[in-house]
Amino acid sequence: MKTIRLFLLSTIISTSICAQVRLPRLISDNMVLQRETQLNLWGWATAGENITISFAGKQYETVTPADGHWRVAIPPMEAGGPYDIRIDASNHLTIKNVLIGDVWLCSGQSNMELPMARLKDKYPAVIAAAANPHIRAFNVATRMNWQQPQEDLESGAWMPADPESVLQFSGVGYFFAKALYEKYHIPIGIIRAATGGSTAEAWLSDEALQQFPAIYNSLKLRDQRYLDSVRKADQQASDNWYSNLWWQDKGIQAPVRWADSNYHPQDWKTMNIPAYWHDEGLKNIHGVVWFRKTIQVPAKMAGQAARLFLGNMVDRDSVYLNGQLVGATQYQYPPRKYPIAAGMLKEGANTIVIRLINYSGKGGFYPDKSYQLFTATDTIDLKGPWQYQLGAAADPIPPTMTFYTQPLGLYNGMIAPLLPYAIKGVIWYQGEANSDRAAEYAQLLPALIKDWRIKWAGMHPMRNFPFLYAQLTSYMPVHPQPTNSNWALLREAQLKTLSVPNTAMAVTTDIGEWNDIHPLNKEDVGKRLALAARKLAYHDSLLVSSGPLYKSMTIKGNKIILQFTNTGAGLTAKGGPLKHFAIAAADGKFRWAHAEIKGNTVVVWHESVSKPVAVRYAWADSPLDANLYNKEGLPASPFRTDDFPAIP
């Protein structure tokens, strides 16, 4: 009898738990719901569960269908709030502090993912003033799945903006939302679903990928056993590489470790930092190299809290001050900004030691970055001679599978769970990971836009929502002469995507950093995307929201005359004569050209090219000095007038 009672009690408890209403992560406190369109509230419960929803003075009822998935359609509402939403079933839930406004999906790769925390030294006043409960963000954690679209997210919560929470917001997304709120005073919600290094095809659905057979046929990762085996093998190979390096590293295995304050170096060489050690005597060396520098700290800095800026390093570093670890970073892109606690600096000699691991490419220190130790009042420059010693050499780390570049995975894991949630539109910053396949990207990006619009339209009475995207910025060393550029080709693919209805592009080539794939000026990116939104989504028809776009050309003698759209109040050359125009004859050999604004045209020529056939503008990896703008201050998009099969 006791066993039977326990069984019945267990059954009752189990049934009660299963019957209870469960909500998706997105449907939660502080959320922003899209105004002026049908809204969906949805979740899960046991079949037959009666659910009553009380929202803004009205009630909505439904019965959970056999599959356990319930959904209630809410008629369009005007911007406003805050509201509480009450859900009554066998359990009772209240969703608090809900606003009605505009919801934008912020997607792409690392330049969209990059948080305000990475920008706090550039925008301290913006962050300090970020107390605005009408701007809210939801961050979708990176998640991949190759078997099926996921129904819910693993984590996440809505965050109203304040000086603390805004550090987690997408930098581009926050500046975009801030600009829109300041213009329209309507609540803005941003959903960040972005993953660093991701390809466009990783964000496409199964149905959309089928139009790309070569990509679709590579979907081996849909076999979970294969996926698990690859991950296990990759992790083991990586662990073995680092373990072997540790045991071979003379700086670790020495009787006195090289980072210790009582170590005295012998026979160390000297290298001027910043530099890549490949160029400074350690050519083709991977593994670990140690660097050390002794500085003299004056009495007025001693004992003070300080910060240590060490630019960017390739690839992994551990940094010590007087034998104590003060910071470590696991990959090359984040800027090294390490706090020095009060009391660590002493008067006189202080030693900084860096253990730097390079696993591929050129190890060392990014040029043209900040290398300094500073307090509130004093600064010590750390550029110049450092001692260095090879700790251990190794072969490059074995290649591993980059899962977030694989097709389908991010769509299933991060986009599919969002589809019932109504949005105003999308802002997109991606393309770096596809830069070696520009011709394919010219098809992938339009396919992605179409795919997402179809998927969202299946859940809402919405069609062709605005899709706004950032064109690739400037990156990599500047070349003295016109040359090949995969990044220029990718920008061209993005430019061509403007043929897709209800799209807009923000040009960013002027606000990049040649030595950093993650430039810090995210304010202008967000503002330019907001300008595009004002024109496209908010129908400000008189607004000039784009810089000049190439339209056509005319050849007259030895000159080419270029016509543009989006000239606004007129064309202008920012900061002096026009730069970064190149011209070629039929041989396809481009050379830097003279260029001059004539009315709303640009005339291009070169005295050695008597019969020109083509012009290129800002056709380079890093066309930072390209300076054609309209008088509204928006830069012209890079372009070419030719279609030469080879790009000299």
From TrEMBL:
<dbReference type="InterPro" id="IPR005181">
    <property type="entry name" value="SASA"/>
</dbReference>
<feature type="domain" description="Sialate O-acetylesterase">
    <location>
        <begin position="422"/>
        <end position="531"/>
    </location>
</feature>
<dbReference type="InterPro" id="IPR008979">
    <property type="entry name" value="Galactose-bd-like_sf"/>
</dbReference>
<keyword id="KW-0378">Hydrolase</keyword>
<dbReference type="InterPro" id="IPR039329">
    <property type="entry name" value="SIAE"/>
</dbReference>
<dbReference type="InterPro" id="IPR036514">
    <property type="entry name" value="SGNH_hydro_sf"/>
</dbReference>
<dbReference type="Pfam" id="PF03629">
    <property type="entry name" value="SASA"/>
</dbReference>
<feature type="domain" description="Sialate O-acetylesterase">
    <location>
        <begin position="102"/>
        <end position="248"/>
    </location>
</feature>
<protein>
    <submittedName>
        <fullName>Sialate O-acetylesterase</fullName>
    </submittedName>
</protein>
